[in-house]
Amino acid sequence: AAYDLALEQGADYIEIDLQMTADGVLVALHDKTLNRTADAPEGVPEQYCRGLVSKKTLEQIKMCDAGSWFSPDYAGEQIPTLDEIFQRYGTSVNYYIETKNPDAAPGMEEELVRLLGEYDLIEPAAENWQVLIQSFSAESLMKIHELEPSLPLIQLYWAGTSKSIQRDLDAVSEYAVGIGPYKKDVDAALVEAAHERCLAVHPYTVNTVEEMEALIALGVDGMFTNNPDDLDSVLGDAALSGEAAAQQAAEAYRECSAGL
Ligand code: CA
Q: Residue 101: what pLDDT?
């Protein structure tokens, strides 16, 4: 439901946080535990929908209600698998996928790359940035880079400082095409230092029009938001389709890299 609404509101990418079940299936869930956003419906054992995703089987997780916590309108929503998301949207949308808690889920990167291959998404990812892969874990990104060097990767940063991120950019540019800093760490110096290395800058999570305008003025290339309709309004005539935006970003990266 959230992905459908995001696309309706003009999102260029849908953002997918990955967790891995005990039986090795990739599912989309922000938190590492089920506690905040899942409930056991009547007749389902409570423990299926409590605790770490990594300790549950897909069968158990599929019994949980992942919508009621938010609103009764979404009662009965299931936690989707990555496979189901790819089946639903195919190559009609762009995917911005985050490997989460990769240390607790050995094999997550291999399974992600396998699924991207199965759905013929590796080439469109490399060519047109139809898929971007993000992580706070440099190790996870470097692993993906080894498995499939053509995939475009974004290094996320916990809240810190512009300077501390700038010191990391040379190392990051070895495997990534961009960075995802906390919005308050973005200043003109960071954007400039990133762009000198051809790295895109995608701050998170930007939910007010004031923040969006300020970051655009600083020269960021994209942003994570819960309100894609507001970002679309802020961009006005400059708003592109998701397909065009992703293609343009991939092309700009290629041109910039060729000039380095
Ligand atoms: Ca995320």
A: 86
